[in-house]
Design a protein that fits this description.
It is a single chain. The protein is mainly beta. The strands form 26 sheets. The chain has a five-stranded mixed sheet. Strands 28-29-30-32-31 form a five-stranded antiparallel sheet. A five-stranded antiparallel sheet has the order 55-59-58-57-56, with no helix packed on it. A hairpin with a 2-residue loop joins strand 80 (1216-1222) and strand 81. Helix 12 (1400-1416) packs across helix 14. It starts with a strand and ends with a helix.
C-alpha cells in the first residue's frame, strides 16, 4: 500500500483576478496616502494651476492567484528622490505594500468588490466577494482588530437542496462569475450557466443580529443582507456570454449579453448577427425584474460588456471585430477590421484607423469617457467616447503603448492602474491625462522614455528584468503618448504612463529541467549538494515568454575564503573622527555608503582585529581592543563615533584604535555577590546610546551612554533588582526615525523624559535618537516591553511562548474580537502521567529580536526563538479600540492591587502583534549551554534587508513590501557567525564562518530576484518556450521556442491549397488583404552566463515552416556499429497543415559539440526521418530510442547512421503527452485515454496493464518508495491519485541482482492514482500477490489514492528524498529508507510542489491530525479543506478511490496553533506534540531540494 504527502513548495504567482476597493480604510480616511496629480479628469478646461493638486485617498489592490488571496496598500511618495518610473505629476514613486496574504482551501474563480456607495460621507469601507466552484460565495471584510480579513457572510447553492438549479447537467464550462452594482446596492452571480443569484446589500442603518458596536471600531464595511435566485430561462434568456450593472439608474439595472440561437464559424454566412443585449431593472425588495430595453442583431463574436460611467451611461459591447455602444437613447458602433463587414453590408459602420482583433481583451476606464483596452498581443489601446450631452456620437480608437499580456486590469483611484497577468509579470502603472499635446516640460520626454535604465535605481528593481517592463520602457513598438484625435469641438487628450512597481510571476510552468548552477561546488556532499542544482522552467507566453531559473536555497558569490578554526563570532564596525553633515538626507545617504573600518573576530581564547578599509590586514597588536580572550559583542555608539567591545567581565569604549574608557562588571546585588565568582555576561544587545547585558545569574545591567562626553555608565534597572522572576531572553529595540512608530500606539501625548528630544553631539550636529525600548521574556513565558531608561512597563503579554495568533497588552484584554488569550494555564492541559508533555510545556525563549527596517510606513517585527527550535515571528500593527480605554481600566484595577493610574498613562495600549507563518523553515533543537546569538539584523546586503539566521540550517529572512521571504542557505552546512561587510572590494556584502572553520567573504547574487517564494532569475526569450532539456556534459539547455511571424494571408492560403490534392485554388481568387500570424518554431541552445547576466544563445536549429517542434530530449543511444554510447539531441516534430492532410512528423537527431577554444558551439544534424503521425514524445530505453508516433510507440536501435525499428506496441493512444522509463518499464500518458503500463523484454514490448477509464492526462511519473513502484498521473481537472498495484519480489534463483526492487504501482493524476496488477509478466523474476478480482486478471490499473491539487500539473520530476535527522542516525546504506523518491511538479498557475512517499505509521498519524485540523483551525472564507481535496470528475463516471495522500497545506496550520491547543490535539489523536513536529520537520528536510 502506498501512502504519500502532497506539499506546496512555491505558491501560485499567475494573477487571475484583480480589483480595487477601499478595504483597509475608507474613502474619507485622511490617514491614507495622498497623491499629487496634474489632471482633473472630469474638467473640460485645463487650468495650468492644476499641477500638483492633491486628490483623494487611493484604494487597496486585491489580487488572486490560484488559491492565494492578497490585499495590498499603495504607498505613494512625492519626495525629491526620484525612483523607478521617473517623476510624474509630482509623484516620484509608488509601491505595493502587502497588508494580508491567505492561502485558501479552494481556487478563487472570480472576485468583486462590494462598494459602500459613498454613503456616510465615504466613511464606510468596501468588502470583497469571492466565488468558488460550483456555486459558493464568501463576503470578506477587513477587521482592524486582527489586521486581517474576516468572513461577514457565506452563500452556498450546492448540495441536495439545490440540485434543481443544475437542470440535470453535471459539468459546466464556466464557474460562478460575479459582477457588482457600481453603487453597491447588490451583486449578481451567474452560476450553472442558467441561474442568476442576486446578493442584496444591507442598508446603511441595519446591522447583523447581535452586532456589537465595538466590532466596528474601525468603521463599518458594506455587507450582504440576503440572496435570491432568478432563473434566466423564465426571462427567455439563454446562452449567456456576459452581464454587467449599468451606471446612473435609480434602481440597479443589469444588462445581459446573450445569444438567441447559436452559430459557429462554418455557419456564419447564413447566421451571423445572433447576439442580443437585454437590460433588466432589478428590484431587490419586490424581487421583480422587468425588461426595460434591449438591442438585437449584434455580431455573434461579441463576448464582453463594459458599463460606461456617468454622466454618459449605457454599455459597450466588445467583440472580436467590432465595438458597439448601446443605451436606452442612442447607439453607435466601430468596425475594427475587415471581418466586421461580413454578411449584409447594408449597415455601413465607421472604421477604426488601423486593424486590430479584440478577442480575449480586458478593459478598464481611465476617465469617464476614455477606456483602456489590453489586447491578446499586449497592446494597450485607448477608446474615447465622443458625446454631446447624453447622446454618444462616435467611438474613437487609438494605439497607446505595448505592455504585458493581461488577465485583468483595474483602475486604482484616478491616476493608477494595475495590469494583472497570468503570462508575465503584473505591473502597477501611473498615468496622467492632459489636453493638447504633452504637458511635460522640455527634456522630460527622454527621461520618461528611458524609465528603467537609471543606473542608481535600487538594485532589486533592476533585478526584475521582466520583458513586460522592457516593452513599456522602449518606445520601439508604439509611441510614448497615445493620442486620441477627437472631433473638432473636443480638445485632444494625451496620456503618459510610468511603470511604478511589478509583481513577479513564474507561471505558467509548461516544462522544466533540473540542471547545475553556474557557481556549483562539485565537492559538496549531503544536503549542501542540493545548492548545486536549479530548476530551469519554461514560463510565460508570446512576448512575455522567458526561462525562469528557480533556486530554493541561496548560494552567495564568494569573493575570497580563509581557514579560521575555532571562531565564536565576527563583527564589523565603523569609525569616523568627525561627522559634519548639514542635512538629514545627505547624512543618511552617506551612512549607507560608509565603509567599515574594523573586523573583530572572536576565537576560543583570543580576539583578532583586522582593518577593512581596503584589504583585510591584521592590526591586533596595534589597537587597544581587548584581545586576550573572547569577545561577546561589538558595535558602534554615539552616531558611529565610538566602538564598544563587550567581553565576559567588562567592556571597552574605543575611538578608532584608541581606548577611551574601560568598564568592568560586578555583581548587581549582595545575594549573588556572596559567591566567589562575579557574574559573566551571557548576551548583549546594543541600541545607541544604550547597551543591555544579561548576566549568567539572570540579572540585567544597562550601560547608559552620554553623547556629549562619549562615555558609558553602568546602571541596574530598579525594576529588575527587586524582581524574583528569572529572565530567559532580552533585547533592545531602537525605534528610529523622525517619527518613531511605537509612539502611534500610545494613546496619550508623549511623556517620556527627554527621550524624544534631539541630542546635541560633541560635534554640534543634532542626532535624532528616536526611542529605545527593552523587550524581556521571563522563564515563565511572560513577555514585557519597557521604555528605556525609565524602565516603566509599556506592554506585557502572558505566555508569549505558546505562540498565540495575536498578542494584545494584558491590560486591555479585548475578548469581543476573539483575541482573548487562553485563560487556562498550560499546566492544566497536561493530564496525569504525560511526562512527554511536561517536557513540552517547559519550553522557554532563548533569543529575542525586535526590529523595524527603513521605510516611512514600515512596522516592527518581533522574533523569538524557543528552546525546541521553533521560531515565533510577529508583525506589529496599530488598533485603536473605541471603548477599551474606559471599559478596561476599571476591570484591571479591581484585579490588581497595584495602582494603575501611573502605569496606565503611557502604555502602548493600541499596540498589537499578529503572528506571521515561517514557511518551509525546518526547526533545529537548540544545544544546551551558552547559546550563540543566531539572529543577525542587516540593513543592506545587495539591496535587500532582513535577518540572517545562523545555526545548523542557516536562513535569510528578507523583508520586502512588509512581508517576510524566507530563503535557506544550505551550501556550506552549519554557520556559526555572520556579519555585513561594505568596503572597496566587497560592495554591500557579507562575511560568515562555517562550522568547519572557513571564513568566507561573499556577495548576494545580484541577478536573482528575492521578492518571490523562491529566488528567481528571468531570462526573456521574446517567444513562447514549450519544452526544455539539459545537457549535463556541456552545461547547455535546449529549448523549443515559437515566435509569431506575420505572413501575408495570400501566402498562408496558397500553402494550404498546395497541400490539398485536387483542390487547386485559382490564384486569381486569392485576393485577401492583410497578414496572418503563424507560429514559427526553433530549437535554441542556450548556455548560462558565468557572471549571471543574460544567457547566451549559442546556436539555433530552425524548424520548417508549418512544422511544429513538439518535444526535445537529450538521449543516450548505443551505437550498434561501434558498441559505444552516444549522447544526442532528439527533436520530435509534427506538420500542421489543416484537417484535410494526413498527420506526419519527423525525428531529428543532432550532435552538439564545442570548438577546442570553447568559442563556438557546433550543432550538426546526424539523422532525420519522417514518420506517420506526430512525434509527441521521445525517450531512451536501455540504449534504444523509444518514439511515440501518432497511435503507435516504436522502439528503434541506432546504427550510427540510421534508426531501425526493433519493436512496436499498438496501444491505441490518440496523442502521447509523456513517457517515463524506469529500468525496462515504460509509463505512457495519453491526452485522453489515461495511462498505459508497458514492459520491454527482448524482442518485444508487452502491455502489462492500463486504466480503462477516460482521463485527460497531462503528466505522468513513477513514484519509488523503497521496494514499491507506483504510478502517478495528473489530469486536466487538477487531480492527483496514488495507487498500489502489486509488489514484485525478485526470484533469487533466476535473478542474481539482490538490489532489484520489488514493485507495487501507484498512479497519481490530479486527483487519483492507478495501480497496475501485472499480468503474466515473467514468472521466473517476479512473485506477486493474489490477483484482485476487480483488476481483470491484472489488466486493469486500480486507483489507490486520489487528491485534488487545485492546479494543472504539466510536469513531474523524480528526485531522491534527502536524509532526515532521524534517518541519518538509524538507517543502513541500501535499506528501503534510502531508496525513496519524491516527485516534484510544476503547474500552469506558477506553483511548484511535490508528492513524497510516507511510511504507514507516519501517514496514519498525520491523517488523524489532518482530520482534527479541519475543525480546529479557522478557515478563511469559510472553505472546507476536505471538500477542496476531493477528486473532481467533471461529470464523468468515477469510482472514489482511497484517501491515501495527506494535505501538507492543512498540516502546516498545526505549527501556527497556540502551544496549549497543539498539546490538546496531540493528546486527542494519541500521540505527542514532539512526534508530530518531528514528522512535519522531516518532511521539510526530506524535500529541501535545489
Amino acid at each position: 500500500m502506498s501512502f504519500a504527502a502532497c506539499k506546496t513548495m512555491h505558491c501560485p504567482t499567475g494573477i487571475e483576478n484583480c480589483a480595487a476597493g477601499f478595504i483597509t480604510h475608507s474613502a474619507a480616511d485622511n490617514t491614507t496616502p495622498q497623491i499629487l496629480h496634474t489632471a482633473d479628469v472630469d474638467s473640460s478646461d485645463w487650468p495650468a494651476a492644476a499641477n500638483n493638486k492633491p486628490i483623494g485617498p487611493i484604494p487597496n489592490l486585491v489580487v488572486s492567484a490560484g488559491n492565494v488571496l492578497e490585499v495590498y496598500l499603495i504607498r505613494v511618495n512625492s519626495s525629491k528622490e526620484v525612483k523607478r518610473g521617473g517623476l510624474m505629476a509630482g509623484v516620484s514613486s509608488a509601491s505595493l505594500e502587502l497588508v494580508c496574504h491567505y492561502r485558501l482551501h479552494g481556487n478563487i474563480y472570480s472576485m468583486g468588490v462590494l462598494t459602500a456607495g459613498g454613503v456616510d460621507g465615504g466613511k464606510r469601507r468596501d468588502s470583497i466577494i469571492l466565488t468558488f466552484e460550483d456555486a459558493k460565495m464568501s463576503v470578506l471584510e477587513f477587521d482592524d482588530a486582527t489586521h486581517g480579513l474576516r468572513t461577514s457572510s457565506m452563500h452556498c447553492f450546492e448540495g441536495p437542496d439545490w440540485f434543481h438549479l443544475k437542470r440535470g447537467r453535471e459539468s459546466f464550462d464556466k464557474g460562478p462569475i460575479i459582477k457588482v452594482d457600481a453603487q453597491g446596492r447588490c451583486a449578481g452571480v451567474f452560476a450553472f450557466e442558467q441561474q442568476m443569484i442576486i446578493l442584496k446589500a444591507a442598508e446603511v442603518n441595519s446591522s447583523l443580529v447581535g452586532e456589537d458596536s465595538a466590532f466596528n471600531a474601525g468603521g463599518a464595511s458594506a455587507r450582504i443582507e440576503s440572496s435570491y435566485i432568478i432563473t434566466l430561462r423564465d426571462l427567455d434568456v439563454r446562452h449567456v456570454k456576459d452581464f454587467i450593472f449599468l451606471h446612473g439608474y435609480i434602481e440597479p439595472v443589469m444588462v445581459i449579453l446573450h445569444e438567441r440561437e447559436l452559430t459557429w464559424a462554418g455557419r456564419v454566412s447564413w447566421k451571423h448577427n445572433t447576439c442580443t443585449v437585454s437590460a433588466f431593472s432589478i428590484s431587490t425588495t419586490l424581487k421583480q425584474h422587468p425588461l426595460i430595453w434591449s438591442a438585437v442583431n449584434l455580431p455573434h463574436e461579441a463576448y464582453k460588456l463594459l458599463a460606461v460611467p456617468s454622466p454618459i451611461g449605457g454599455v459597450l459591447v466588445i467583440g472580436a471585430n467590432t465595438i458597439h455602444y448601446q443605451s436606452q437613447s442612442s447607439s453607435c458602433s466601430l468596425a475594427l477590421n475587415n471581418f466586421a463587414f461580413f454578411g449584409d453590408s447594408s449597415q455601413e459602420m465607421p472604421r477604426s484607423s488601423f486593424n486590430v482583433e479584440l478577442d480575449a481583451a480586458n478593459a478598464t476606464w481611465l476617465t469617464s469617457d476614455v477606456a483602456m483596452l489590453s489586447t491578446k498581443t499586449g497592446e494597450l489601446l485607448l477608446l474615447t467616447i465622443i458625446y454631446d450631452g447624453r447622446i454618444v456620437q462616435k467611438l474613437d480608437l487609438s494605439k497607446s503603448r505595448a505592455s504585458v499580456l493581461t488577465s485583468g486590469i483595474t483602475t486604482i483611484g484616478d491616476s493608477l492602474f494595475f495590469l494583472g497577468s497570468r503570462l508575465g509579470d503584473s505591473l502597477l502603472v501611473q498615468f496622467t491625462c492632459g489636453l493638447g499635446g504633452s504637458n511635460l516640460p522640455p527634456g522630460m520626454q527622454e527621461e520618461v522614455g528611458d524609465i528603467e535604465s537609471d543606473a542608481p535605481s535600487a538594485k532589486r528593481l533592476r533585478m526584475s528584468s521582466s520583458d513586460a517592463l522592457q516593452d513599456m520602457i522602449n518606445g520601439e513598438e508604439l509611441s510614448l503618448y497615445g493620442t486620441a484625435p477627437n472631433n473638432a469641438q473636443s480638445a485632444q487628450k494625451t496620456f503618459s504612463f510610468a511603470v511604478r512597481d511589478s509583481l513577479i510571476n513564474v507561471g505558467p510552468l509548461k516544462d522544466f529541467s533540473y540542471g547545475m548552477r553556474i557557481n556549483a561546488d562539485l565537492n559538496a556532499t549531503g544536503i549542501a549538494k542540493q545548492s548545486n542544482y536549479e530548476l530551469v522552467c519554461c514560463s510565460g507566453h508570446g512576448k512575455n515568454g522567458s526561462l525562469s531559473v528557480l533556486q530554493q536555497s541561496i548560494r552567495p558569490e564568494m569573493i575570497t575564503q580563509e581557514a579560521l578554526p575555532g571562531c565564536k563570532g565576527i563583527w564589523t564596525v565603523y569609525h569616523k573622527n568627525t561627522r559634519t553633515h548639514l542635512n538629514e538626507s545627505s547624512r543618511v545617504a552617506d551612512e549607507e555608503d560608509e565603509y567599515h573600518a574594523y573586523l573583530i573576530i572572536s576565537l576560543e581564547t583570543r580576539t583578532m582585529v583586522l582593518q577593512t578599509a581596503n584589504n583585510l590586514e591584521e592590526v591586533t597588536e596595534n589597537v587597544d581592543y581587548y584581545v586576550q580572550g573572547t569577545t561577546l559583542a561589538a558595535g558602534n555608539l554615539f552616531g558611529r563615533r565610538r566602538v564598544i567591545q563587550v567581553f565576559a567581565h567588562g567592556a571597552r569604549i574605543l575611538d578608532g584604535a584608541f581606548m577611551t574608557q574601560e568598564l568592568s562588571f560586578k555583581a548587581s546585588n549582595v545575594e549573588s555577590g556572596s559567591s566567589s565568582d562575579s557574574p559573566i555576561v551571557t548576551s548583549v544587545s546594543i541600541a545607541d546610546p544604550y547597551v543591555l547585558l544579561r548576566m549568567t545569574n539572570g540579572s540585567l545591567q544597562l550601560l547608559v551612554g552620554d553623547p556629549s562626553s562619549c562615555s558609558l555608565s553602568i546602571t541596574v534597572p530598579s525594576i529588575f533588582e527587586s524582581s524574583q522572576k528569572s529572565i530567559s531572553a532580552c533585547t533592545l529595540y531602537h525605534d528610529k526615525g523622525p517619527e518613531p512608530w511605537l509612539r502611534k500606539t500610545s494613546t496619550d501625548a508623549w511623556l517620556s523624559s527627554g527621550m524624544g528630544e534631539a541630542i546635541d553631539g560633541a560635534d554640534g550636529v543634532t542626532h535624532d535618537q528616536g526611542d529605545v525600548y527593552c523587550v524581556v521574556c521571563y522563564e515563565n513565558g511572560t513577555l514585557e516591553i519597557f521604555d528605556v531608561p525609565n524602565f516603566s512597563c509599556v506592554f506585557s503579554v502572558d505566555k508569549f511562548i505558546s505562540g498565540r495568533t495575536y498578542l494584545v497588552d494584558t491590560f486591555i484584554q479585548d475578548s469581543v474580537n476573539g483575541l482573548d488569550a487562553h485563560s487556562k494555564n498550560s499546566e492544566d492541559v497536561v493530564g496525569p502521567g504525560q511526562k512527554e508533555n511536561r517536557k513540552d510545556v517547559k519550553i522557554n525563549v532563548v533569543e529575542l529580536m525586535m526590529h523595524r527596517w527603513i521605510g516611512k510606513h514600515s512596522r516592527p517585527f518581533l522574533f523569538g526563538i524557543l528552546a525546541d527550535g521553533t521560531i515565533l515571528s510577529y508583525h506589529a500593527y496599530v488598533f485603536e479600540g473605541s471603548e477599551n480605554s474606559s471599559k478596561v481600566e476599571g476591570s484591571v484595577s479591581s484585579q490588581n492591587s497595584v495602582s494603575l493610574s501611573n502605569t496606565n498613562a503611557s502604555r502602548l495600549r493600541n499596540l498589537r502583534f499578529f503572528r506571521v507563518p515561517v514557511d518551509n523553515y525546518a526547526r533545529e533543537e537548540m544545544p544546551s549551554g551558552t547559546p550563540l546569538q543566531r539572529m543577525n539584523v542587516y540593513k543592506n546586503i545587495g539591496g535587500s534587508q532582513g535577518i540572517f539566521l545562523t545555526g545548523s540550517r542557516p536562513s535569510w529572512f528578507m523583508v520586502f513590501r512588509e512581508r517576510l521571504r524566507i530563503h535557506p542557505q544550505l551550501c556550506d552546512g552549519p554557520i556559526v557567525a555572520f556579519t555585513v561587510l561594505h568596503n572597496v572590494n566587497c560592495n554591500h556584502g557579507l562575511i560568515y564562518v562555517t562550522a568547519q572553520g572557513t571564513l568566507k567573504i561573499c556577495q548576494l547574487p545580484s541577478f536573482l530576484s528575492y521578492d518571490n517564494y523562491w529566488p528567481v532569475q528571468k531570462i526573456p526569450l521574446k517567444g513562447t518556450p514549450h519544452q526544455v532539456t539539459y545537457f549535463a556534459e556541456k552545461n547547455f539547455y535546449s529549448v523549443i521556442v515559437s515566435v509569431p511571424v506575420l505572413k501575408p494571408l495570400n501566402q498562408v492560403l496558397s500553402t494550404i491549397a498546395d497541400q490539398e490534392v485536387g483542390h487547386q485554388f485559382d490564384p486569381e481568387n486569392l485576393n485577401y488583404e492583410g497578414n496572418y500570424p503563424i507560429e514559427e518554431f526553433e530549437v535554441r541552445i542556450v548556455e548560462p552566463e558565468k557572471s549571471g547576466g543574460p544567457w547566451q544563445t549559442r546556436a539555433s536549429i530552425p524548424i520548417q515552416s508549418s512544422e511544429n517542434a513538439l518535444t526535445v530530449r537529450m538521449v543516450t543511444l548505443l551505437n550498434t556499429t561501434t558498441r559505444e554510447n552516444e549522447t544526442l539531441l532528439a527533436v520530435g516534430t509534427a506538420y500542421v497543415q489543416g484537417e484535410d492532410v494526413a498527420a506526419r512528423g519527423r525525428v531529428l537527431l543532432f550532435s552538439i559539440d564545442r570548438t577546442a577554444d570553447n568559442s563556438r558551439t557546433l550543432v550538426s544534424e546526424v539523422y532525420s526521418k519522417e514518420l506517420k503521425g506526430a512525434i509527441s514524445a521521445l525517450a531512451s530505453l536501455q540504449g534504444h530510442l523509444l518514439i511515440a508516433s501518432g497511435p503507435k510507440i516504436i522502439l528503434h536501435k541506432w546504427t550510427g547512421s540510421e534508426l531501425n525499428g526493433v519493436a512496436f506496441c499498438d496501444v491505441p493512444p490518440l496523442h502521447v503527452v509523456s513517457l517515463n522509463i524506469v529500468k525496462n518499464f515504460i509509463l505512457l500518458g495519453d491526452i485522453h485515454n489515461s495511462i498505459y503500463f508497458i514492459s520491454w523484454k527482448e524482442p518485444q514490448l508487452n502491455l502489462l496493464a492500463k486504466d480503462f477509464g477516460l482521463l485527460d492526462c497531462l503528466a505522468t511519473e513513477f513514484l519509488i518508495d523503497g521496494s514499491t513502484l507506483s504510478l502517478l498521473v495528473s489530469d486536466d481537472q487538477k487531480n492527483v491519485q496514488s495507487v498500489d498495484t502489486i509488489t514484485w519480489q525478485p526470484n533469487i534463483e533466476t535473478h542474481n541482482n539482490m538490489d532489484e526492487p520489488s514493485f507495487g504501482t501507484m498512479i497519481s493524476n490530479e486527483s487519483w492514482e492507478l495501480t497496475p496488477r501485472l499480468q503474466e509478466l515473467a514468472h521466473e523474476i517476479f512473485y506477486y500477490a493474489p490477483k484482485m478480482s476487480e483488476s481483470w486478471k491484472g489488466q486493469k490499473l486500480m486507483s489507490r489514492a486520489e487528491f485534488h491539487v487545485g492546479s494543472r500539473i504539466t510536469k513531474f520530476l523524480r528526485l531522491q528524498l534527502l536524509p532526515t535527522i532521524s534517518e541519518r542516525t538509524s538507517t543502513t546504506p541500501g535499506s528501503d529508507k534510502t531508496n525513496r523518491f519524491a516527485s516534484v511538479f510544476g503547474t500552469l498557475d506558477g506553483s511548484l510542489g511535490c508528492i513524497a512517499p510516507l511510511d504507514e505509521l507516519t501517514f496514519r498519524r498525520l491523517q488523524s491530525l489532518q482530520k482534527k485540523l479541519v475543525s480546529a483551525v479557522t478557515h478563511v472564507a469559510g472553505l472546507n479543506p476536505r471538500s477542496f481535496r476531493q477528486f473532481r470528475s467533471n461529470g464523468k463516471a468515477h469510482r472514489p478511490g482511497p484517501d491515501n495522500i495527506v494535505d501538507c497545506e492543512l498540516l502546516s496550520h498545526y505549527d501556527m496553533l497556540p502551544l496549549e491547543e497543539q498539546l490538546e490535539i496531540a493528546q486527542q489523536i494519541g500521540t505527542t506534540r514532539t512526534q508530530i513536529m518531528s514528522n512535519l520537520n522531516d518532511m521539510i528536510l526530506g524535500t529541501s531540494f535545489l
